[in-house]
Amino acid sequence: MQTQEVQPGSQLLFTVNETVQLLRLSRPFVYRLIQRGELASIKVCGSRRITWDAMREFVARQVAMQADK
User: Fold this and answer.
1) 1 has a pLDDT exceeding 50
2) How far apart are CA 63 and CA 33, in angstroms?
3) Residues 6 or more apart from 6 whose CB is under 8 A from it?
4) Contact 29, 16 (CB under 8 A)
5) CA distance 46 to 29
6) pTM higher than 0.90 for the full model?
7) What residues contact residue 45 under an 8 Å CB cut-off, 6+ apart?
8) How many Cα atoms occupy the beta-carbon half-sphere of 60 within 13 Å?
9) Structure-derived torsion over alpha carbons of residues 21, 26, 30, 36, reported in degrees to the nearest 10
10) Within its chain, how far is the Cα of 29 from the centroid?
């Protein structure tokens, strides 16, 4: 099976697996972030989707929290 490289900003919605690739986090951790409301997502036909903006906001919050330490 051939894997395609995910291009940030090239699409509106990303699957959880694509989000895992882009953020370089584990799949269970991404689901925990979604469950805790730390990573915004929507449900489309029963599957979670995350926007590019939601990922950017999550990263920006993480950077800001690290800067405060």
Assistant:
1) no
2) 16
3) 14, 18, 21, 22
4) no
5) 19
6) no
7) none
8) 6
9) -160
10) 10
Q: What is the DSSP string of 25-63?
A: --HHHHHHHHHTTSS--EEETTEEEEEHHHHHHHHHHHH
Number of residues written out for the chain: 69
Q: Domains in the chain, ordered, with CATH?
A: 13-67 (1.10.1660)
Which residue type sits at 58?
F
The first and second tokens of residue 33, run together, are: 């972030």
Tens of pLDDT, residues 45-55: 999 999 999 99
The confidence band for 11, taking pLDDT boundaries of 50, 70 and 90, is: confident
